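#struct-pred
JK: can someone run the complex with manganese (II) ion? inputs below
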Amino acid sequence: MLRQYELVDRVLDYDPEADEALLNRAYVFSMHAHGSQKRASGDPYFSHPIEVAGILTDLHLDDETIATAILHDTIEDTVATPEEIARLFGPAVARLVDGVTKLSKIEAQTETARAAENLRKFLLAMSDDIRVLLVKLADRLHNMRTLHHIAKPEKRRRIARETMDIYAPLAERIGMYEFMKEMQTLAFQQIEPEAYESISRRLEQLKIGGGDKIAMIASGLTLLLTRAGVDAQVEGREKHPYSIWRKMAERHISFEQLSDVMAFRAIVPTVEDCYRAMGLIHRRWPMVPGRFKDYISTPKRNGYRSLHTSVIHAGNARIEIQIRTPEMHAEAEFGVAAHWAYKDKVKAGNQTSWIRDLVEILDTAASPEELLEHTRMAMYQDRIFAFTPKGELIQLPKGATPVDFAYGVHTDLGDQAVGAKINGRVVPLKTIIENGDQVQILRSKGQTPQPNWLNFAITGKALASIRRHLRHTERDEQLKLGRKLLDDIVHRLPAQIGADALAHALQRLKLPDEPALLIAIARRTLSDAQVMESLMPGAAGGDVGHALAPQKSAISIRGLTAGVAYDLAQCCHPVPGDRIVGLRRPDAGIEVHVITCAVLSELAERAESETDWVDVSWGETEGAVARISIEVRNEPGALGVIATVIGAHKANIINLRLDNRDTGFHTNTIDVEVHDLPQLMRLMAGLRAADAVNAVERV
Ligand code: MN
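RT: done, structure tokens with the ligand placed:
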């Protein structure tokens, strides 16, 4: 374990301005906080944060980051509080420690491997300061280095899997290639122990062939090229076991067939030198057929340029050689970022450039300050991430609500949402979700999206779904209302209409189809008179510009607020004197029924609540329309007799229709306007008394 002065000296070594006192305070505080806690290895727990800090000194990070590393587990694992950290180490360190603590909590929440990609994005989003992520990665790297101390194989494998799926790619993404390789090697060892063993053994055997083979081959290559006048810088490396294994698996080849166990790179001044170097190499060692690639004349899609070849070196070892200019080399380094962005199907336009910048900064930053100045995470700043109860991550724009979340999970879930719980507490659907919240949507099968959701939903998906649904509902209701009103109008026509009357009406009104007519009627963009006139020219009596005086205006009903629209139900045709009740309908005001109406009792069962019912009674009346059916003998003048009786009782015929006719009798349905029930009763008695009339009934 690093001692206090060793750690401080390391930092002062690359940053003489570092706050020595801060580092010393952090060291002592963490040591006391972790006290006698032990690691699985039996070491004092405190050794872990110190090693993590040590890893970060290799990256020459600033004093605040190093202090954060020393303190990174104190809030999660000891009695230390965020307030204490802020008081003792200042707001900057407190914020960083808080960031690392949050990442650790999230890490503990997510179980499924399929959430890995989302979790990577989430970790990036949470690390609004890249130093948080660097501490987290160093933390993970140290845990991987000490993984073998953990007794349970399942736990070791789980941690290794997580490292492979989440942390190694994260390290790669921000350009920490060394972290990535070490994590992959350590994880691979746990996940595929046999493959790891056999590949490592082969690599050992290669080395036993004679000292440091890589260095030997590299100097041989350099000699070959410089002697021929090509100024070359050659570096060689051994592929790490995981990347060898991945290549073997991808290409379905054996270790012997692999030519990439050792890889060399020659950097030469010009493009001409590249081809000259290649010629020299191919003349010296036989090339492996099919392995030569000229990415200079034909660059890769991401712009990568280089010559690749494999040769059989010294009669046995296959080696891979890349040849490129310094410009191509620099491009290739940034190209990794471009490649990453391409592979991830990243949509955010600035993300690639952000990674480029970061890679460039990590490669070229002259000082830690310069590094940190540039590395606030610009990416994902307008995004938040929330969890489903199962731990799945949902990515949303900032300001999103549970409605957005629900639609983000599934359209059905959005449509049927009735409420939400955030972190276990019931909240209104318009609550704004915070990064890292766990959101549970309460749903109910029969529910539909509410119009007021449009006021707070912000994702395109949610808004589109809500609007689509509302449009449908509104249209359905208008069609229903239009149908009802059209039936009404047809009833009021002086005669029955033919089968093609509707088609003619549509033509006259210049409407495309029946639904268009129904909607025009429902919205009152067409007056009743206009519709009547189109169905039966002349029927509206020439006064087509205005709707006929609606029958309902002729009466008044107590118990209704002035101006509330109501209709007398077409099923029971109440007349003044009838006992009546009002039913509130969402599409067309209030419908007044006779209290004994059969349709009404049916509606009563379907009514949603008490408030749908309105108490009404007749007020001062000027008349109402009643519908009666009269069975008349089929003889000349019968209709004249009926008209006379109605006239004698001072009632008006509003509408008359012949319902059915047989040889002896026919039935007429007549709408008559009367003042009140007694007048109607007298009229009906008078009709029954007439010779031609067989029967009279209220409809
Ligand atoms: Mn830790």
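RT: quick notes.
The first helix runs from residue 4 to 14.
The radius of gyration is 43 Å.
JK: thanks, will look after standup
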